[in-house]
Amino acid sequence: MKSFKSTAWLLPQPVLIIGTYDKEGKPNAMNAAWGGQWDMHEIMISLGSHQTTDNLAVNPEFTVTFATADTLVASDYVGIASGRNTPDNMQKAGWTIEKAPNVNAPVFKEFPMTLECRVKQKIDESETGYFLVAEIVNILCDENYLAEDGKPDVEKMKLITFDPVHHTYIQLGKSIGNAFADGKQLK
Ligand SMILES: Cc1cc2nc3c(=O)[nH]c(=O)nc-3n(C[C@H](O)[C@H](O)[C@H](O)COP(=O)(O)O)c2cc1C
């Protein structure tokens, strides 16, 4: 085994797109890889200091959507262009924006699935950022991405993950097993 010094190589990492409104209702988006499920109805995201955190300070509601092969370029763009100094970042991203039905935050219609969220807790808050814990208020899924059982079909979405080793995006592939089930073979 080769050893490497400690770094942010937890694998695989999501490509979350966080949607917020500023105090005037102007939409913004940023890319975040350092996030995950916190509890059954809550998520967590490690946030630096961004336009997004400015927006959350005045309006603690946001959306989280999951980047796909089809939305990759603009998803990466909102990870390198801040709304703080790129006021036309949403025009450049080119997404269709609607207000979310249950929170005061934008939905980007090109993405298959979106969580509507409300800030619950900011842990270790400082001027460099904080760890955000947020309640999932509601989940939206484009009807084109539903499976036969009526639930979201993750395989259809062409989701991408972030590779923090080589800074690439990798498209997810096919389902290859059944969770809480295949392991029973060894019971
Ligand atoms: C692949 C990738 C992952 C990122 N992950 C995070 C993250 O987890 N947390 C964070 O604070 N910033 C992260 N960023 C940086 C922000 O997306 C970036 O600073 C963005 O421009 C902030 O936008 P805003 O100022 O408009 O909110 C990531 C960027 C990229 C490209």
From TrEMBL:
Whether Hydrolase counts among this entry's keywords is no
* UniProt keyword annotations, A-Z: Flavoprotein
**Which residues belong to any copy of the Flavin reductase like domain?**
11-144
Matching SUPFAM superfamilies, A to Z?
FMN-binding split barrel (SSF50475)
Q: Which GO terms describe its molecular function?
A: FMN binding; oxidoreductase activity, acting on the CH-NH group of donors, NAD or NADP as acceptor
Pfam families linked: Flavin_Reduct (PF01613)
Q: Does the keyword Acetylation apply?
A: no
What domain of life does the UniProt record list for this protein's source? Bacteria
Q: Which cofactor does it need?
A: FMN
Family membership noted in the UniProt record: Belongs to the flavoredoxin family.
Name it: NADH-FMN oxidoreductase RutF, flavin reductase (DIM6/NTAB) family
Which taxonomic lineage does the organism of this UniProt entry have?
Answer: Bacteria, Pseudomonadati, Bacteroidota, Bacteroidia, Bacteroidales
